[in-house]
Design goal:
The complex is a heterodimer of chains A (881) and B (203). Chain A has helices at residues 112-117, 141-147, 162-169, 175-202, 204-228, 232-273, 275-290, 293-307, 313-338, 344-356, 363-403, 406-411, 416-444, 455-478, 485-490, 499-522, 527-557, 576-597, 610-636, 640-645, 672-701, 707-744, 762-781, 784-807, 813-829, 836-847, 854-870, 872-877; strands at 6-11, 14-15, 20-26, 35-40, 43-44, 50-53, 56-60, 66-74, 78-79, 81-82, 85-88. Chain A has 881 residues and is mainly alpha-helical. In chain A, a hairpin with a 2-residue loop joins β6 (50-53) and β7 (56-60). The two termini of chain B are 24 Å apart. Classes of the chains: A mainly alpha (881), B alpha/beta (203). β1 of chain A pairs antiparallel with β2 of chain B. Bound molecules: guanosine-5'-triphosphate and magnesium ion. Chain B: It is a lipid-anchor.
Chain lengths: 881, 203
């Protein structure tokens, strides 16, 4: 609401009817149309008002008398107020012979005739001959009207009231003055009467002339009477009639022609007047062609207002013609409205036209429906298009698979289902907002159409099905497993992709869906609709994650061992394999984090989702198991060549020197034992370090439920570790231990000898050397393994010795000394790798040797001392540094 | 009726006098509506009235813009009677208009019969310095002689436009306060008497 108008200035502030007045003030509206009322002294002057500016109006005063306000009324400010007054006056009485700028009621002007005839009319201004008073304290006309209803102060009027006259003009005049005035008036009236007499006197001559003339006239008339009889008028009448008849004869023709001309003119006039109507069909057609629908509508409304109820047949006919054009236009607009593509604004405009044209269709609803159908149609179109390209491609693939290498197949353009998903996202982002916008406009009343019952439900259904089919199309082409069977057939199937292929596109695809999703979110869709896409996104993300992990699993399965042990860097004694494994996992975690895991607008953290968590757990388990399998495979494949080498029957052949490898074996691949050791080392490293690293990595990323798979696989690795160890020991210690007995009794040796000992026996030396060999082999790979393996071997050696000693039937004194020397020496040599078990076995072995006396012991000690000196190198070899 | 009963801010009636074309209407329109009218349209009699703030007090100013043209000279007497203060305008570019101020002054004094009537001598069109015909000295001398202030204005640049109106209103206000003190209530009695007389006559 604008402030009310206020008039603060009038130029001029008084005037006769027809005065051009500049009205100034404030708040006269902002355009000419805002001015909807103007009264000057109560007289409506809107007709002549000319709006100039928000504070200036020019108007022409009407026939006003007296003072009054100038009131402006505007559309938005209402009726205003006025600070100043306008005084209207009549310059002079307006007679029938006088021109006047305005219409003046003539009835009160009856007295003009008499006045003009009387030789000396009253000086109406001042009949009492007293000067007229100052106007200052005048009693207003209204007041006088109150005192003397129906009277007036006009001395010439029938309703003349002397009291009114006196109050109006001589309010302050003293009584004596008024009396004097009366005398004056009386004298004036007298003089007027006297004047008539003197008038006669003065003009006696001419009056006499007039009397003579009258006499003459009378004489002539009487003479005529005798000549023409007593009824000359009848004759006269007859003559007049005769002449009239003659005249008619002369003029009838002319008159009839004139009549015809008049009729033609009338017809022309009618045509001219209703030109608008008759030309309208043409004009409408022209404007339709030009697309000026607003003008057409305007014209149509006007013609309807003017002629809708007309009974005149020609008008009806013209109107029907117009009507026909309008119906055509309606149909055209209605078709346009539903012809896609079209913008929402265009549709809105067309709807407005149709509504204004009173069309029988529910234009707005049709617009919505057509949009919805368009989306559905577009979906199908895109689908069919890609179905075709898909067919082409897959046939191509089948043909080419045999001819080209796998690499070349990958070069083939983006697969159909990806293109399809991409396009359907784009189409949804583009088309759906319009459906929503026009729907909003419809229900918010912006389209100014009646909303029929049930439309809300129907519209909601449309919105939901549109989004639902969007979601289902994507599911069908990317993650068909999340659809029901029936949906799967309905939404078709583009050939699904290989894992490696799809993993290439998945992150990009996820981005497309997300961008559509954010478009939809911006539309303020109901949650019900958004949740459909949200669920789709969750499934896609899980799928994406799963695919990425699967891919990694696959990569891990193909990891190969290069058998190169790294001695430098953070981790020694291991090959690159476990680190590669770790790196692969780190990589996949990074990718998953970037694509699937990151939660965008209105998305939940994926890992809160139970099924996602389960899937993840499964995938982690798969990955870890895959690596386990890799290690397992590495530890179980023996190659035959090596096998031959590694089945020694004879001593010294344990542990194959590097140089003795067969020439056809690839240089880089070490011997079977080495490979076992390397794998073992890797296995332990993986178990102790890598698994922890992986667990931390996962946890850092937010995967919390990794403990179970890690634990399971840790156990698996432990088992593997044991089995490798067993296998290695089997490989190493069995032959080693197995040689002790034959070596001990080589040359039919008997403990019941009588040769005193001088040194430890060769079997012991051999045993020591063998162990040193194993030691060096392991040391080459990983010192960490020494403890585990050597201890085990020493244990078996000790056990074997114990077994051998317990089997000895008889010791001679010398034999006992020898055995003591051997076993003590061995025990001393192996002491760094001695387990309690081994220790026990040695001890028990010693108990089977007969007790020696002091002198005998001295010899033993001597030999041991010599031995220590001789075998210093060996001792150093087996010492922990 | 209600309108009359409501407390109305005091009303000061100002009359613009001066020869034709000196800029009375221009000054008035500039004061009232901040606009300058280039075209010369001789005035007959224009009324303006608006609320303004005079030294923190709400007052109404009523401006009667009179005709300078001789054709309308006869109706002046009547107008002058209702004025409470006068802005007597001449154009500094036209000596004749300056000479005419003498006549206006006399006429006002005759009608108002009051030597101390609030009155300002105003030399308008001071933006046209290069066309000046009436020197500042001359004008000042005359003002001093009359015992009134002299201000030079420009309706075109708005220079001193507000000043002349506000100064005049202050004088009017001061005059009224004096009057109220000396002859409080006399006017009212007079009007009451007249009412009685009317009533008597109609009975
Ligand atoms: N340059 C200039 N021109 C002015 C000034 N004041 C008025 N005019 C011009 O002088 C001409 C006459 O101005 P009006 O205000 O109409 O004169 P007036 O005194 O009202 O004349 P009457 O109504 O005939 O008495 C107009 O063309 C104005 O544009 C002024 O201060 N400077
Ligand atoms: Mg003027």
């Amino acid at each position: 609401m604008a402030p009310p108008p206020i008039v603060t200035g009038l130029s001029p502030n008084e005037g006769a009817p027809g005065t051009r007045i500049k009205i100034r003030g404030e708040n006269f509206g902002s355009q000419p149309g805002d001015l909807i009322g103007l009264t000057i002294c109560g007289m409506d002057c809107l007709l002549t008002a000319e709006w100039k500016s928000p504070n200036k109006i020019i108007a022409i005063s009407g026939p006003i008398k007296g003072k009054g306000d100038v009131i402006v009324t505007t559309k938005y400010g209402g009726t205003g107020t006025c600070n100043v007054t306008f005084r209207g006056y009549h310059l002079a009485t307006i007679g029938p012979m006088k021109e006047s700028a305005v219409w003046v009621e003539e009835t009160p002007m009856y007295s003009w005739g008499r006045h003009s005839l009387s030789p000396s009319s009253f000086q109406q201004e001042d009949p009492l001959g007293l000067s007229v008073e100052e106007t200052e304290n005048k009693i207003s006309e209204e007041e006088l009207q109150n005192y003397f209803p129906g009277k007036c102060g006009d001395i010439g009027s029938q309703n003349f009231s002397p009291a009114w006259f006196l109050l109006e003009n001589h309010q302050a005049t003293s009584f004596n003055d008024i009396k004097a005035g009366l005398v004056y008036l009386t004298r004036k009236v007298h003089s007027q009467k006297e004047g008539q007499l003197s008038f006669l006197k003065a003009n006696l001559n001419s009056i006499m002339d007039q009397i003579d003339t009258l006499m003459n006239l009378r004489e002539r008339y009487e003479k005529d009477l005798s000549v023409f009889g007593s009824t000359p008028t009848i004759k006269l009448e007859r003559a007049i009639k005769e002449s009239e008849r003659e005249a008619r004869k002369l003029f009838d023709d002319v008159l009839s022609r004139k009549d015809r001309a008049e009729k033609t003119r009338n017809a022309l006039n009618v045509l001219q007047r209703y030109k608008f109507l008759f030309c309208l069909p043409c004009v409408i057609e022209k404007n339709i062609k030009k697309g000026e629908y607003d003008i057409v509508i305007n014209d149509y409304m006007r013609v309807k207002n003017l002629f809708d109820k007309t009974e005149v047949p020609i008008f009806r006919e013209a109107l029907n013609e117009v009507e026909k054009r309008i119906v055509e236009l309606q149909n055209k607009l209605h078709t346009d409205l539903q012809t896609m593509p079209i913008t929402v604004d265009q549709q809105k405009r067309l709807i407005r036209y149709l509504v204004n044209l009173d069309c029988p269709f529910d234009a707005a609803w049709d617009a919505i429906k057509s949009r919805w159908e368009y989306i559905n149609k577009k979906f199908k179109e895109i689908y069919n298009f890609h179905k075709n390209t898909d067919k082409l491609e897959s046939s191509k693939k089948q043909n080419s698979a045999s001819k080209y290498s796998k690499l070349q197949i990958e070069v083939i353009s983006v697969p159909a289902c990806i293109n399809f998903t991409d396009e359907i996202c784009a189409v949804t982002s583009e088309l759906f907002p319009d459906l929503w916008k026009i729907g909003q406009a419809y229900f918010s009343g912006e389209l100014q159409v009646k909303i029929e019952a049930g439309r809300q439900v129907e519209y909601k259904h449309m919105v939901l099905t549109a989004i639902d089919s969007y979601s289902k199309y994507i599911r069908a082409s990317i993650i068909p497993n999340t659809l029901d069977k029936s949906d799967r057939t309905q939404y078709g199937s583009l050939s699904s992709l290989e894992r490696d292929e799809i993993s290439l596109y998945l992150p990009e695809l996820l981005r497309s869906v997300r961008s559509t999703y954010s478009t939809l979110i911006q539309l303020d869709l109901p949650n019900e609709a958004l949740d459909i896409v949200s669920a789709l996104l969750v499934d896609l993300r899980i799928h994406c994650m799963s695919i990425l992990f699967q891919q990694t699993t696959e990569q891990i399965k193909h990891l190969s061992e290069n058998w190169k042990i790294s001695f430098s860097g953070k981790y020694t004694g291991v090959t690159e394999l476990p680190l590669k494994f770790l790196r692969l996992i780190e990589d996949v975690i990074q990718i998953v984090k970037e694509s699937a895991l990151s939660a965008e607008q209105r998305e939940t953290t994926l890992l809160d989702n139970v099924s996602a968590q389960k899937e993840l757990e499964k995938q982690i388990d798969n990955i870890l198991s895959a690596f386990y399998m890799v290690l397992n495979n590495l530890s179980s494949t023996e190659d035959f060549e090596d096998c031959d080498d590694n089945s020694p029957v004879v001593s010294q052949l344990i542990g194959t020197p590097v140089g003795s490898q067969k020439p056809d074996v690839i240089h880089d691949i070490p011997t079977w034992e080495h490979r076992l050791l390397i794998t073992l080392s890797n296995c332990i490293f993986t178990k102790n370090t890598i698994l922890n690293d992986i667990a931390t990595k996962f946890r850092e990323t937010g995967f919390s439920s990794v403990d179970t798979p890690i634990g399971v696989n840790r156990n698996k690795l432990e088992m593997l570790e044991k089995s490798i160890l067993d296998r290695y020991l089997e490989q190493k210690s069995d032959p080693l231990v197995g040689t002790i007995e034959p070596s001990m009794y080589l040359g039919r040796f008997d403990w019941d000898i009588n040769v005193p000992p001088t040194d430890i026996r060769p079997y012991a030396k051999e045993c020591i050397n063998n162990l040193i060999n194993v030691h060096s082999e392991i040391n080459n790979i990983s010192t960490n393994l020494l403890d585990t393996i050597l201890v085990k071997i020493v244990e078996t050696i000790a056990e074997e010795l114990y077994r051998l000693m317990s089997c000895v039937q008889k010791f001679s004194k010398e034999g006992a000394q020898q055995a003591k020397v051997d076993i003590e020496a061995l025990q001393e040599m192996f002491k760094d790798y001695m387990s309690d078990n081994a220790h026990g076995h040695f001890k028990e072995a010693l108990t089977h040797i007969p007790v020696l006396d002091g002198a005998q012991m001295t010899l033993v000690q001597d030999i041991l001392k010599q031995c220590r000196a001789r075998m210093r190198t060996q001792i150093i070899c087996l010492r922990k540094h | 009726m209600a309108k009359k009963l409501a407390v109305q801010p005091s009303l000061h009636k100002v009359i613009m006098v001066g020869s034709g074309g000196v800029g009375k209407s221009a000054l008035t329109l500039q004061f009232m509506y901040d606009e300058f009218v280039e075209d010369y349209e001789p005035t007959k009699a224009d009324s303006y009235r608006k609320k303004i703030l005079l030294d923190g007090e709400d007052v109404q100013i009523d401006i009667l813009d009179t005709a300078g043209q001789e054709d309308y000279a006869a109706i002046r007497d009547n107008y002058f009677r209702s004025g409470e203060g006068f802005l007597c305008i001449f154009s500094i570019t036209e000596d004749e208009s300056f000479q005419a101020t003498q006549e206006f002054r006399e006429q006002i004094l005759r009608v108002k019969n009051d030597e101390n009537i609030p009155f300002l001598l105003v030399g308008n069109k001071c933006d046209l310095e290069d066309k000046r015909k009436v020197s500042l000295q001359e004008a000042n001398d005359r003002a001093k002689q009359w015992g009134v202030p002299y201000v030079e204005t420009s309706a075109k640049t708005r220079e001193h436009v507000d000043k002349v109106f506000y100064d005049l209103m202050r004088e009017i206000r001061a005059r009224k306060m004096d009057e109220n003190k000396t002859n409080n209530g006399r006017g009212k009695d007079k009007s009451k008497k007249k009412k009685h007389c009317c009533l008597f006559m109609c009975c």
